[in-house]
């Protein structure tokens, strides 16, 4: 049952009044909708999913792959910014996220990729038995259905997928786009020229090298969001209720035996301003899936968190859990811009050539052409590929000291990975202009994004008042650690080498548009990185799956420490980032969460 509270508020209120739920799921993003589907498979269980945003059905900002990122600053964006970043020229960094059914999966870049085995095993190593590659690979596969490419496109572009590395019957269709821009194809050749390996199968536990990546889209090139793939097909289940425009303002908590707290339900603010309760059965559970940016906010508003944060804001402490909102981590990014030679086009051409745009819109109706494409080529590099032997020596020296905010165990694991071939830097292309002083008319540009995959700086997300209407203080704390600054600067400088390869020289003007020749030395790169860094829209860690004494918020069954019936199942539980875009992990964690909740 789907209820839009903006148009059917009376129905929503009557459902809340007449029903006690087995599961109340807070946040209808990737994890929330995965759980909504799985937990309602048992028809005797009543499941309620609460999403603050609307549906994405028939919205071309959502459905058309090439429109990814155009949600920013629209009604489906939470449109947050970080607090000024003290180690990065006081920049405030955009941390937009999807306020819509499907959450990130409705607005993201559609990149579908996994990290290497070691990164998932690290969660178990940090003290959470059962959270390893084997179990998460199984649940990640459970979420997906691989579409093999049409042989015509496979031949034209050279992509292929190893069927055994993918799921074949999960809800999310994953496909190669039926169009890949020339410049993206050439990133493969440019990488190989520089000595990077071409990886035929990056999905089965080794993602090192350059490769074609799948996208979360159907064979007809329509985005697969968690709403379209997980929930629409089962929305007629009578035991499943999904509310849109339902802003959860706090959890209702009561005391339980042994000093624990129990959640009796949640408070929902309707679009008309009224606040109603959703009630859990005595045996029921509340599952938080509001995403890594907002799950800590809801915990704190409800009185679960660090007393040092809650008490000054006048929030009574129901459960003291100092790690709530800490261990926040995101990928960090810099972007270079280059101009394509005359005759080569990027998405910029859609803005200056109306005929082309109309043609492409027509083609898209047949599932073809430019608009089917969001991204498809990634290069995941270990340090040996981008640093000289002398620089690797320097890396050892820098990493001799643990940066201040990362836990010792996490640091040891990442340090070991850095020197054992686990990718640390990703290179990919954005098919448009992204920075620079002059953007010439009728000219196409391409940008190279350089991502640090394992930053060692840890930030925090805390509330600043007792009101849900005040945005949380989002502090990724970028570049606090010397390593983060040093490596991203080196990698950004290295990215220029792609444009010196034959594959790229043939199609790109030699002169760099952004930042250009004013930035040459290591010191200049370091200054430039400080002034131009962004985060990667891959937030994790703010309610980590770790032992309590090591900064954990949830245990291996995803139960909040000190609560009887409250769990967290979104990306805030991931204690360490992976060298991958995060949606496959978000689905995999949520699928595993569903198995755990059904069995415990
Ligand atoms: C711009 C962008 C680009 C990205 N690109 C990629 C990519 O190309 N590939 C990839 O793999 N990953 C990508 N990601 C990351 C990926 O989408 C996320 O890792 C994933 O969506 C996280 O899932 P989640 O369930 O933890 O949170 P989300 O999917 O963010 O879901 C959280 C949900 O909770 C809702 N919510 C929050 N607070 C409340 C409240 N108080 N009441 C009710 N509802 C609430 C939100 O509206 C949202 O729907 C991108 C993310 C963004 C934002």
Notable traits:
six-stranded antiparallel sheet; eight-stranded mixed sheet; 19 helices; alpha/beta; 18% strand; single chain; binds flavin-adenine dinucleotide; 600 residues
On the 0-100 scale, what is the average pLDDT?
98
Report on the biggest sheet.
8 strands, mixed
- Molecular shape: globular
β-strand percent reads 15-25%
Distance between the termini: 26 Å
Q: Which blocks of ≥5 consecutive residues have pLDDT under 50?
A: none
How many DSSP E strands?
22
Structural class determined from secondary elements: alpha/beta
Q: What is the number of helical segments per DSSP (H or I, 4+ residues)?
A: 19
Rg from Cα: 23 Å
The residue fraction in helices comes out at: 25-40%
Bound molecules: flavin-adenine dinucleotide
What does this structure look like?
By secondary structure, the protein is α/β, with parallel strands linked by helices. It is built from 19 helices and 22 strands. Helices cover 28% and strands 18% of the residues. Helix 16 (482-495) packs across helix 18 (522-532). The model has no long low-confidence stretch (mean pLDDT 98). Bound molecules: flavin-adenine dinucleotide. InterPro entries: FAD/NAD-bd_sf, GMC_OxRdtase, GMC_OxRdtase_N, GMC_OxRtase_C. Monomer. Its cofactor is FAD. Belongs to the GMC oxidoreductase family.
């Amino acid at each position: 049952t789907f209820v839009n509270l903006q148009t059917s508020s009376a129905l929503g209120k009557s459902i809340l009044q007449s029903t006690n739920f087995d599961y109340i799921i807070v946040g209808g993003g990737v994890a929330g909708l995965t759980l909504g589907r799985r937990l309602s498979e048992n028809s005797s269980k009543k499941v309620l999913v609460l999403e603050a945003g609307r549906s994405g059905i028939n919205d071309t900002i959502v459905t058309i792959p090439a429109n990814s990122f155009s949600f920013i600053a629209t009604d489906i964006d939470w449109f947050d910014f970080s607090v000024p970043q003290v180690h990065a020229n006081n920049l405030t960094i955009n941390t937009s996220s999807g306020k819509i059914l499907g959450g990130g999966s409705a607005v993201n870049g559609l990149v579908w990729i996994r990290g290497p085995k070691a990164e998932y095993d690290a969660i178990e190593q940090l003290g959470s038995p059962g959270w390893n590659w084997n179990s998460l690979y199984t649940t990640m596969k459970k979420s997906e259905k691989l579409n093999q490419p049409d042989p015509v496109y496979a031949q034209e572009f050279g992509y292929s997928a190893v069927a055994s590395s993918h799921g074949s019957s999960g809800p999310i269709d994953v496909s190669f786009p039926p169009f890949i821009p020339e410049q993206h194809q050439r990133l493969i050749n440019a990488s190989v020229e520089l000595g990077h390996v071409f990886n035929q199968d990056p999905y089965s536990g080794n993602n090192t090298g350059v490769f074609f990546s799948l996208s979360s889209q159907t064979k007809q090139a329509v985005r697969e969001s968690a709403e379209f793939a997980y929930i629409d097909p089962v929305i007629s289940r009578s035991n499943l209720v999904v509310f849109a425009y339902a802003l959860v303002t706090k959890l209702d908590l009561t005391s339980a035996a042994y000093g624990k707290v129990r959640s009796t339900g949640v408070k929902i603010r309707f679009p008309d301003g009224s606040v109603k309760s959703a009630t859990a059965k005595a045996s029921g559970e509340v599952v938080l899936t509001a995403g890594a940016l907002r799950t800590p906010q809801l915990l704190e508003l409800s009185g679960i968190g660090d007393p040092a944060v809650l008490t000054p804001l006048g929030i009574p402490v129901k459960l003291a859990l100092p790690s709530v909102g800490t261990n926040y981590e995101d990928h960090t990014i810099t972007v270079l811009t280059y101009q394509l030679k005359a005759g080569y086009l990027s998405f910029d051409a859609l803005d200056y050539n109306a005929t082309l745009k109309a043609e492409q819109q027509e083609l898209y109706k047949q599932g073809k052409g430019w608009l089917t494409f969001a991204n498809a080529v990634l290069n995941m590099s270990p340090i040996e590929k981008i640093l000289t032997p002398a620089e690797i020596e320097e890396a050892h020296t820098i990493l001799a000291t643990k940066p201040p905010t990362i836990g010792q165990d996490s640091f040891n694991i990442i340090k070991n990975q850095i020197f054992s071939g686990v990718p640390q830097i990703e290179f990919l292309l954005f098919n448009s202009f992204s920075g620079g002083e002059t953007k010439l008319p009728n000219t196409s540009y391409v940008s190279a994004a350089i991502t640090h995959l394992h930053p060692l700086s840890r930030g925090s997300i805390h509330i600043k008042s007792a009101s849900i209407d005040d945005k949380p203080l989002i502090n990724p704390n970028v570049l606090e650690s010397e390593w983060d600054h040093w490596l991203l600067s080196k990698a950004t400088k290295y990215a220029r080498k792609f444009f010196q390869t034959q594959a790229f020289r043939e199609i790109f003007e030699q002169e760099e548009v952004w930042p250009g020749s004013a930035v040459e030395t290591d010191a200049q790169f370091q200054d430039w990185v400080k002034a131009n860094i962004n985060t990667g829209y891959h937030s994790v860690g703010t309610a980590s799956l770790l032992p309590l004494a090591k900064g954990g918020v949830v245990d291996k069954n995803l139960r909040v420490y000190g609560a009887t019936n409250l769990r967290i199942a979104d990306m805030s539980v991931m204690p360490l980032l992976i060298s991958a875009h995060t949606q496959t992990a978000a689905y995999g964690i949520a699928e595993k969460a569903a198995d755990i909740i059904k069995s415990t």
